[in-house]
Amino acid sequence: MSASEELEGLAVKFAQEAIELEKKGSRRLAAQKYQRALEVLLKLCALYPTAAQNRVYMEHAEAYRRRIQELQTQAAEPDHPSEGRDPSKPAGFDQWVLTEKPDISWDDIAGLERPKRAIEESIIFPVRRPDLFPLGWPRGILFFGPPGCGKTLLAAAIASEVKGVFFCADAASLMSKWLGESERNVSQLFVKAREVSDNGQPAIVFLDEVDSLMGVRGEEVGGEVRVRNQFLKEMDGILDKKKTYHVYLIGATNKPWVLDEPFIRRFQKRIYVPLPDVKARMDMFSIYAENLRFNDNVDLPELARMTEGYSGGDIRDLFQSTHLKVVRSFFQHGKVADPNALPDPITMEDFQTILTERRPSVSQGILKRYHDWDESFKAS
């Protein structure tokens, strides 16, 4: 696969994740994924300026840009339109607050028992009975692992399961070209989180792609250094065991090895989110197959064996591509004219055909790197 094909596949992956999150009601997380897809398409056009597909890429990029604006506008609308923005807060301040509750629960996430347990021990139990934690509780959690394994879905599920205020931020929403604005954004984010906690609700701050904010770089400009220092200061503040407020920081990254060690230490729980095992893959099959029709010869246990090494995103793409294969055949044979006609049930052969064309997106080399980092820094 060429570099351009890999980038195109990455853009498609981000867009598909955005669509799924949007269906679940998580507009802010969906907007972030659309932003990733847009950035990849723009990079494609910059790297291959004479490519014939550039017009299509730019059309998609513009569509994603419009959708991002729509989602951000919807999410920013106040419950009472007559109420204006609080003049004491900077413009755009509420962009981080996830006002909608995503329609995602623990049951929608197959496997991942270790990350779920970490969330229970660090957030759910202390919120319910803080008196049982005389030594305090972890307030910094890092989820790391291959892409497409559920880190963002975990964050969305927390927003649904925990009756608190969920803040969602990344480098794009925090960094600014104006001097002093980026570290002010970081400070204001945590100020708002502490205000929420002071009012009796848990506040969860989710940082997606946290390596882009806390990673080690060969060269850093002054603004990046100040932002990193501001993060260290804020993290030290929420980790103070003498304070009993419920402010939590959850970071997600596909590249934990680029994180600077001072930040690693401040994530008291560092949880590997691995590729799904056989049981988790079977659970995913149940979720993705809910609205599909299967032939009797489909052997899901055998399919689970054949998909060893596939990420959750790979498995979703496998089911989607297999279904599209059947639908394509339905259209090609002209059956669509009959309003009562349906595509043929998916067969095991359909899955096997697609599997010959779709390999796992995570290599053994990168898996070893995750394993080695987990052995060095694990804190579950």
3D architecture notes:
The chain is α/β, with parallel strands linked by helices. The protein has 3 domains: 3-76, Methane Monooxygenase Hydroxylase, Chain G, domain 1 (Up-down Bundle); 93-274 and 368-377, P-loop containing nucleotide triphosphate hydrolases (Rossmann fold, 3-Layer(aba) Sandwich); 278-361, Helicase, Ruva Protein, domain 3 (Orthogonal Bundle), CATH 1.10.8.60. Helix content is 54%, strand content 7%. The chain contains 15 helices and 6 strands. The protein has helices spanning 3-23, 27-47, 54-76, 113-128, 151-161, 171-174, 181-198, 211-214, 222-238, 261-266, 278-288, 300-306, 312-332, 348-357, 364-377, and strands spanning 97-98, 140-144, 165-169, 203-207, 247-253, 269-272. Strands 1-3-4-5-2-6 form a 6-stranded mixed beta sheet, sandwiched between helices. α2 runs antiparallel to α3. Mean pLDDT is 81; it is low at 78-93.
What is the fold's blueprint, element by element?
Blueprint: H1 3-23, H2 27-47, H3 54-76, E1 97-98, H4 113-128, E2 140-144, H5 151-161, E3 165-169, H6 171-174, H7 181-198, E4 203-207, H8 211-214, H9 222-238, E5 247-253, H10 261-266, E6 269-272, H11 278-288, H12 300-306, H13 312-332, H14 348-357, H15 364-377
Parallel strand pairs: 2-5, 2-6, 3-4, 4-5
Antiparallel strand pairs: 1-3
Helix pairs in contact: 1-2, 2-3, 7-9, 11-12, 11-13, 13-14
- Cα(first) to Cα(last) distance is 37 Å
The CATH architecture assignment of the largest domain turns out to be 3-Layer(aba) Sandwich
Mass-distribution shape: globular
Portion in helices:
40-55%
What summary fits the major beta sheet? Answer: 6 strands, mixed
CATH homologous superfamily (4th level) name of the largest domain: P-loop containing nucleotide triphosphate hydrolases
Level-1 CATH class name of the largest domain: Alpha Beta
Q: Please state roughly what percent of the residues sit in beta strands, choosing from under 5%, 5-15%, 15-25%, 25-35%, 35-45% or over 45%.
A: 5-15%
Give me the number of helical elements: 15
Structural class: alpha/beta
Computed Rg? 22 Å
CATH fold-level topology of the largest domain: Rossmann fold
Number of strands: 6
**What is the N-to-C order of secondary-structure elements (H for helix, E for strand)?**
HHHEHEHEHHEHHEHEHHHHH
Number of domains: 3
Which spans have pLDDT < 50 for at least 5 consecutive residues?
A: 78-93
In spatial order, strands of the major sheet run 1-3-4-5-2-6
On the 0 to 100 scale, the average pLDDT is 81
